[in-house]
Amino acid sequence: MRDHKELGFTMVFISVLLQYLGVSCSSFGLLEDLEKKTIKNEKNKTNPWCSELPDDIIELILRRLDVLDYIRFYSVCKLWRSVAVGMDLGYSLCCRGLPWLMFTCDAKTQTYGFFSLSESRKYYIPLPTAGGLAHCCGSSQGWLLMCNSASGGCFLLNPFSGAEIKLPRLSPPLAYKVILSNPPVSDNTNDFMVVAMNATHLVFCRLGDLKWTLLHQPESSYSDAIYHKGKLYAVNRKDELWVFQLQGPRSPSARKLKIPPVDLDPRPLGRSDTEMMTRYLVEPKEKLLLVYGFFHLIRTHGYDSTQTHRPCYCDCGCDSPHNFIFQPQLCVKFKIYVLDEDNISSGSGEGGYQWNVQESLGNQALFLGRNTSKSLSATEFLGLKENCIYFTLNFYKKSFDEFHYSGIYHVENGMVESCFPFDPDTDMGPPIWITPSNSI
Fold first, then answer.
1. SUPFAM superfamilies, alphabetically (predicted)?
2. CA nearest neighbour of 277 among 238, 233, 326
3. Residue 37 CB: number of other CB atoms within 10 A?
4. What is the mean pLDDT of residues 211-224?
């Protein structure tokens, strides 16, 4: 297992390091050659300062690094690299650092594109094992859920270490979200569980299971789920919040909590071709937040002199091609509730809990989308905007082509800015937040 980890991470490490230095590299054969040269050049070189640093001090340093700094640490010398590979730092690395935005997944070239918020730059990581018909269905704890739409086969993939964890076949074959109970590191695999959601089912499995266990089949499909204080909380599109106890017996217990009514309709800003409301569950500082998001696409028009044969999108009713092109604009609004778990007896409705509107996130920033929702403190990460929601959005409507967007919503004033400072690639796929991890 360690050899697989070292080989996989070494290939990713060299790829990212070369891009950091401004060198293009598209061949794994070249990567292997570079790794051999690096090891050969280090055989007769030992930095006295590096060799005299105790292993326990090295471990303390490593546990405070995000993955990018881990890669730089890894590249200092052969001794530090061997110590880094030998330490089981999966959980530590998974819990630190800003999420990256995965903005493309090209099965033909077997390459994934990532955007680093902390460095404001793109990286492309080759992943030969992720090719074929595998489709990325979401991320959790630094892992991607990959599903084969034809066979139903699925597995977890760590794009930063190259490690894979095989899972039972899914039926229906695709999911749109995955939730891991904890990072799958070596000392907690007995408690490790995978929860997957699709349009009709909520299922889970443990490592070694041959099939998925149906957790709940609601009247309405689920929007999001999260582990909170050892229990799984899941909210559906019928505004029902279910709480599941998965530990112990195979038949999990479940109960339903009341959800507050919400009105997020910002449509006075324009005529809507399509709109979507979704729900997210987030856990900042051991509190449970329920976040409603309303997304509204508006048809607008732009003029492009290079596009002379596009159909008319205006309201004049003509059928003549001209230079007006369709440019969707996005209107976004969020509303945040916090679950008051300290006043259970005074709450109303099912479950006896009270929900309170939260007008500000303070110094926290939320990451929402097809990832397991995440909350981070802006005081701990340079460049992270406080009181903001970093979100991704994927529209699949008949009146639009596929529409993908990643943005930053400012809770204080409702303003939205793009968090991807580059022109979208022509092959840009559904964006997904993922926190880099080297766990296996």
1. F-box domain
2. 238
3. 10
4. 81
Place of tokens 């640093």: 53
Across 150-288, the runs of DSSP E, i.e. the strands, are 154-157, 164-167, 177-180, 193-197, 202-206, 213-216, 222-228, 231-236, 241-245, 253-257, 272-282
Cα–Cα distance, 120 to 195 (Å, whole number): 32
Instruction: Please report, for the chain, how many H helices and E strands are present, in that order.
Output: 7, 25
Structure letter (DSSP) for residue 340: E
Identify the burial level of 333 via C-beta atoms within 10 angstroms of its C-beta, where 0-12 means exposed, 13-18 middle and 19 or more buried.
Answer: middle
Q: Is 273 helix (H, G, I), strand (E, B) or coil?
A: strand
Q: How many residues does the chain have?
A: 440
Using the structure block, give the residue that is written with the tokens 């699949």: 396
Are 326 and 313 contacting, i.e. CB atoms less than 8 angstroms apart? yes
pLDDT confidence of residue 45: 54
How far is residue 372's CA from residue 201's CA, in Å, rounded to a whole number?
17
Residue with the two structure tokens 């993939």:
157
Q: How far is CA 158 from CA 112, 321, 385, in A?
A: 12, 47, 27
Mean pLDDT of the chain: 72
Question: Residue 103 in contact with residue 428, Cβ under 8 Å?
Answer: yes
pTM of the model: 0.77
- Closest to 61 measured CA to CA, from 39, 16, 93: 93
Q: Are 215 and 195 in contact (CB under 8 A)?
A: yes
Residue 90, CA distances (Å) to 5, 181, 205, 365 in order: 11, 14, 21, 23
- Residue 388 in contact with residue 375, Cβ under 8 Å? no
Q: What is the helix (H) or strand (E) element at residue 15, kind and residue range?
A: helix 2-20
